[in-house]
Amino acid sequence: MREHYGGFATSLVTDVEECLLLRDSSDTENKHPKVATAPAAVVGPRLRGAELRNVLLLLFLYVLQGVPLGLAGSIPLILQSRNVSYTDQAFFSLVFWPFSLKLLWAPLVDALYVRRVGRRKTWLVPTQYLLGLFMLYLSVTAETLLQGPGGAHGGPSGGPDVVTLTAVFFALAFLAATQDIAVDGWALTMLSRDNVGYASTCNSVGQTAGYFLGNVFFLVLESADFCNKYLRSAPRPRGILTLSGFLFFWGVAFLVSTTLMALFKKEKGSTRSSEREQRCFVPSEKKQRVAVAPEEPQGVFQTYRLLFNIVRMPQVSTLCGLLLTAKVGFSAAEAVTGLKLIEAGVPKEQLAFLAITMVPLQLALPLLISRYTAGPRPLDVYCRAFPFRLVMGLVYAALVWWTPAVLREGEGGGFPAYYYGMLLLAYGLQQGALYSMYVSSMAFYTQVSDPLIGGTYMTLLNTVTNLGGVWPSTLALWLVDPLTVKECRLAGGGATAGVSGQSCGSAQSARLCVAAGGACATVLDGYYIEAAVCFALGLAWWAWLGKRMRRLQDQSPAAWRCKMNH
What we know:
single chain, mainly alpha, two-stranded antiparallel ribbon, 2 strands, globular
């Protein structure tokens, strides 16, 4: 998820807002789920004794949660370096959907539990055990799955088994999302009322640290080139870390820590009424805490009914439609660009490093932008930033086109420093537009959410925001291959005898080309077609639907209040 997803710095398949909603992921965006605001400003009494241990436990649980998310985010980069198709990348992108859909089962996690075990440990203990077991399974099978043989979505013979990889990492993401729901709820009863503000800080810091460990830290130390260049005196064929060893370590960490927690950590007894005084109903939203009235529904069926009633409201249904379509114009640039750069020769660990350099900017941007979104019309900022973010998509496409010309040939190879400077500049400008849209939308959600059901309301809007970034990313990845035109050519550039004019659009035709002594050459890259189409669609959205987005701010607060039928 931040943001982990989006842009080309991490080349994940969900955009930045998703991940903000995830860690903060999506949100997300996407990528990636929750609301990524600055850490809570609530500072209680000095932490000491049991209260300090509770904060450290929460921080550790969120770190654990971030590790499988980071690993899932690193797999597309590894797959791309092994020449899988973009159809395979689209299939694997389904891994990032559970955090966008966890609202569907969050009420069940909140309401169903075994009293003797504890309301949160009922879900947390088995979920973390399963996460550990899945990671141990992957530690034995991951290298084999990444090397072949391919299945229906596994690329050429001997290529990665994308189907199995997707199934296992989808299960990991689903379990991590469920663990997140349980930890969010437990945080609000584990900490005293004076210190409950530390919960969001633990989430933001812990999940970001876990994602960093599973993504950037792993990718860098897994790279033999990076380790040989910067960390070793004598070169070796492999990096300091291996995927199998990394998975084994964290699988054992999950099992051991969960066992200790199950044996020695007791849940505080709490009534529903006491919890209602502290939190919103749905536990998956912790950054936008809203004090709720005691009347907020707490039962499973009442919550689903409440969500249905909210969606039926004309203003909310209009807003949801806008949120589900707003990011279509950004999907090609923010889902495909990073993978295209790797395809062009940019090392994946260098792209991961770009994410690190953006951290200070990502911390500062929400604080700066919030000065302009605090008024009654925050969506004005959203609409002003929208076309600038669209233009950055064209800039990304230009960078991809420019990359092969900058690649140094011969000994040493690589790219010059000014090239990475250009990437960093483009990424920073795109982040400015992205955060402007993100912060302004969060400010608007806070304004319009019904205070009596604030938690459920905010959760719904954030879920829709997250989902609006995930589905266009998956679609954008899937369309790259069908839109790409390839032709069978000889090494010298002419058409191959016997297969003259033959397209390499399918795996079978590509094999025929190779068997005839030729090679498939790209005549037209579908990525550039997508970039142009997405820009046109985004421009049309801004010109037509952007006005409707602005007009939502003209509605009275009463128009956003939910009338519940009892």
